[in-house]
Q: What sequence folds into this?
């Protein structure tokens, strides 16, 4: 399907510089642009590509100033990155969802599947499960007993959702995600063995949540592990039992959150952040990659870095000193040597 620059500008509420009738049929990155595609420029590091990109249309910020001639048609918008995301969403929406139940799927007779849902080959839907309108269950998905999945949710191949878990509307689960496996609960015994503590709770995931590939969210020992609406989790994240993650929090890959930790809303965590258990994190907190959180964070909006994590500006100053530590030690030895003469 083709679209003109004029149609795209109307969709994005942008203004055109160049040929309003130039058409595109696909999308591309600006550094890999091709004729007949639309790209975007948001990162200044990629600015040089705009002067020779073969892409037919490039979406730019309103304040972009060209320092050389630009041959491609520009569409100026308030926020090029957000507008391109809007365009991607529109493009994806043109792909009509599948529906129906494959004869090679297994669906329990007691499960309820909406007519507009799709259950692909080799997918299993357990007893009492409820699958909402336009839900897409891709091949080799496992849906356990009494799982409820809200309308419009995408579950990609190989996802496992254990019994009793509750999933909201318009969520996305990428391949290999495991929702509702047992929490890590073992009681030490006198003979140095461990007795497993039954994990009888569930996982509750609210609306518009995205879960990355191979991320695991454990069921609660009692009650629920809760992921609030709008949360975005990257690939390879571990969320332990009875954790709660607040609305619109985003977390990058390889972060680990220990049991019963409560995280506020609108937080942003870099990759490989580690949280000990039974602590709380305030709203709007930002934590840099590879930080270690060993105590509750009570102040809203703080920015932390390091392990153990401290105020980010202080951590950066400390790092400068640490990087020069060898020279500092040599100077101290030299001063001591001179004093002892």
A:
């Amino acid at each position: 399907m083709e679209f003109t620059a004029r149609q795209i500008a109307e969709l994005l509420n942008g203004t055109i510089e160049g040929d309003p009738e130039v058409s595109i049929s696909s999308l591309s990155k600006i550094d890999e642009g091709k004729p007949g595609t639309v790209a975007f420029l948001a990162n200044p590091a990629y600015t040089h590509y705009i002067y020779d990109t073969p892409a037919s249309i490039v979406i730019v910020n309103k304040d972009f100033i060209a320092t050389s001639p630009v041959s491609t048609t520009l569409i100026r918008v308030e926020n090029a990155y957000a507008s391109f995301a809007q365009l991607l969403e529109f493009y994806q929406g043109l792909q009509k969802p599948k529906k129906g139940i494959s004869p090679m799927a297994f669906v329990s007779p007691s499960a309820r599947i909406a007519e507009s849902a799709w259950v692909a080959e080799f997918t299993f839907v357990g007893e009492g499960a409820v699958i909402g309108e336009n839900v897409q269950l891709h091949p080799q998905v496992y849906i356990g007993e009494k799982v409820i999945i809200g309308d419009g949710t995408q579950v990609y191949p190989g996802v496992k959702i254990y019994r009793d878990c509750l999933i909201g509307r318009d969520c996305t689960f990428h391949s290999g995600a495991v929702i509702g496996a047992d929490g890590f609960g073992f009681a030490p015994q006198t003979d140095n063995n461990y007795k497993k503590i039954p994990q009888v709770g569930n996982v509750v995931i609210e609306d518009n949540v995205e879960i990355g590939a191979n991320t695991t969210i454990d069921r609660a020992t009692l009650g629920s592990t809760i992921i609030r609406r709008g949360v975005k989790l990257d690939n390879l994240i571990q969320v332990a039992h009875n954790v709660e993650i607040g609305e619109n929090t985003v977390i990058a890959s390889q972060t680990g959150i220990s049991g019963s930790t409560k995280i506020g809303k609108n937080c942003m965590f870099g990759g490989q952040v580690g949280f000990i258990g039974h602590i709380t994190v305030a709203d709007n907190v930002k934590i840099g990659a590879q930080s270690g959180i060993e105590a509750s964070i009570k102040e809203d909006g703080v920015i932390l870095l390091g392990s153990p994590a401290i105020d980010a500006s202080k951590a950066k100053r400390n790092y400068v000193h640490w990087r020069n530590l060898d020279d500092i030690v040599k100077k101290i030895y030299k001063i001591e040597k001179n004093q002892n003469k």
User: Anything to note?
Assistant: Residues 3-93 form a domain with the Udp-n-acetylmuramoylalanyl-d-glutamate--2,6- Diaminopimelate Ligase; Chain: A, domain 1 fold (CATH 3.40.1390.10). The radius of gyration is 26 Å.
